[in-house]
Amino acid sequence: MGLLRRFLWPAIWLLVLLAFPLVWDTPFQQRLGTLVLLYAIAASAWNIVGGYAGQVSVGHVVFFGCGAYGALATYTHLGLPPIAGLPLGVAASVAIAAVVGVPTLRLSGHYFSMATIAVAELVRLVVANTEFLGAAVGLSGPTVPRSVLDLSFTSSLPYYYLFLAVLAGTLALTWRMENSRMGYYLRAIKDSERAARSLGAAASRYKMRAYLLSAALTAVAGSMYAIMIGFIDPESGLGILISVKILIMAALGGTGTLFGPLVGAAILVPLEEISNNVFGGGGAGLTFVVYGAVIMLLARFQPGGLLELLGRLRARAAGRGARRAA
Amino acid sequence: MLLEGRDVTVAFGAFRAVDGASVGVREGEVLGLIGPNGAGKSTFFNCLTGDLTPTQGSVHFAGQDVTRLPPEDRAALGIARSFQVPLTFEGMSVLDNVMIGAFLRTAHTGEARERAGAVIERVGLAPFAHASARSLGTPGRKRLEIARALATEPKVLLLDEAMAGLTPTEVRQAIALVRAIHQSGITLVIVEHIMEVIVTLAERVVVFNQGREIANGTPAEVTSEPQVIEAYLGKRAARAMRRGA
Ligand SMILES: Nc1ncnc2c1ncn2[C@@H]1O[C@H](COP(=O)(O)OP(=O)(O)O)[C@@H](O)[C@H]1O
Ligand SMILES: [Mg+2]
Description:
Chain A is mostly helical. Chain A has a single domain, classed as ABC transporter involved in vitamin B12 uptake, BtuC. Helix content of chain A is 76%, strand content 1%. Chain A has 14 helices and 2 strands; from the N terminus they run αααααβααααβααααα. Chain A has helices at residues 2-23, 27-52, 61-78, 86-104, 109-128, 157-178, 181-191, 193-198, 203-229, 234-238, 240-253, 260-279, 283-300, 306-325, and strands spanning 139-140, 231-232. A two-stranded antiparallel ribbon of chain A has the order 1-2. The longest helix of chain A is centred in the middle third of the chain and has 27 residues, at 203-229. The radius of gyration of chain A is 20 Å and the shape is globular. Chain B folds into 2 domains: 3-78 and 156-244, 3-Layer(aba) Sandwich (Rossmann fold), CATH 3.40.50.300; 88-153. Helix content of chain B is 40%, strand content 24%. Chain B has helices at 41-49, 71-77, 94-102, 109-123, 138-150, 168-183, 195-201, 219-223, 226-233, 235-244, and strands spanning 3-12, 15-25, 30-34, 56-61, 64-65, 79-81, 156-160, 187-191, 204-209, 212-217. A 6-stranded mixed sheet of chain B has the order 6-7-8-3-9-10, sandwiched between helices. A 4-stranded antiparallel sheet of chain B has the order 2-1-4-5. In chain B, helix 6 links the parallel strand 7 and strand 8 (187-191). The complex binds adenosine-5'-diphosphate (ADP) and magnesium ion (MG). Adenosine-5'-diphosphate (ADP) is lined by residues 12, 17, 35, 37-43 of chain B.
């Protein structure tokens, strides 16, 4: 039973993820799966600082934008494959995170949240007025791939497996963090910062580490997005709605849990894509309504997210089973 | 002196919760800090641990000026504490709570778990190791705070009213635990307002009243000082006792 729990279920889930685009193989379904994975990467990255460290960043799109613009600016100005700009985007992300985090992470969480929104909006305005970054028009990737390194494909399938690998890497890193001293310290700091510090946990240093790691991984998600779509402008790369989406996906699935963000993305991305398809342009408005509803339901009923709810239901079922057996 | 506050003053606005107090603990000693509610014991205590920075004065540990050092750095030097109102990590198991302390001396999760397990054994919390901290009562929580602090392998342990709210039996058990900790070579500062606890445990006692040190000596010495009786029982009772004597 223990062996089953430990290896069988993860193996089944891995198989489902690997087989998904081969079984559901229309372009729409493959693209849907790919977008789910992309947002799962971003939401998992957010989860490191927003979930594990309990510091709610509402401006995470700024890191997404760094990755996206890093990739396409490298292509536009240096003629290199977009992927070569990924390290640049990660470096810019980490620099911005350091500038935002150092003064605000030692204060109460509200200052941090507000500072992240302010910085994201500021960066969006600056980018929208910078010719070098395409200003309001945006930047494009290669229209025809020059080599496979451009990672420009017409099918979603290659992106699906690329993103799956990146997601696996992100989750493996998160899992390692969760079980290391850093993970323990972050849980303690979230519970009682004062007590954690009295035991030697340097609270602001660990929150900072989580923020930097989260920023770097979010930039990776941004680069992936830009490489796949081949186009970025201030709205699609730095718009506040992306921050909100990422945050809500993580919250819906369960913040501070390994698979919560993936679950959240797997629910919300299809919901949004299908509503966009069915209602056309009006779908965007409906998306806002859905997100608003999710926020309200989460706030009212289940601050722990769906995975916690599932765990609770399972515990209750097990309790009932035990009682019946007794 | 191993840990010492010199001329410490803490002002909250115009009000001085601690007013020019100089108190230190020698290595290997059990120092008791007593005084009526609101005397400034916890405030002074928080200056020693780094939770508060004194408005004036300085704090020294093993010859080093630590006045501006944050609590986490003082923990690394070997200063550990408990809180008057327990601050256990409610969402974690007892074992995980203690592991947070153990992680100060090892970065390795398995090793931290092992060391935490040994400490839990030592303080008698082994049956609850995997229970959540939330499920413990007040005595359990206070014990857990002590375990967590011990896991940091401190040189000096400061306990803020670790016995308050316990039944007489629990107080006796807690006294035995504190004695064992002292015998293992850890210097202790214990804040209590229960006189009996201080009398049985402390070698030297400092009495606080209205932010100032009003007496300092062995338990027998300080409990016979008129000023101390007055601070505890009020002026009329003190006068009545003097008349009776
Ligand atoms: N943060 C604070 N702000 C204002 N007054 C405080 C604060 N902390 C403590 N005090 C006041 O300082 C005095 C001393 O408090 P405390 O050190 O907790 O006393 P004790 O531990 O001896 O009972 C009390 O009058 C208390 O109300
Ligand atoms: Mg007190």
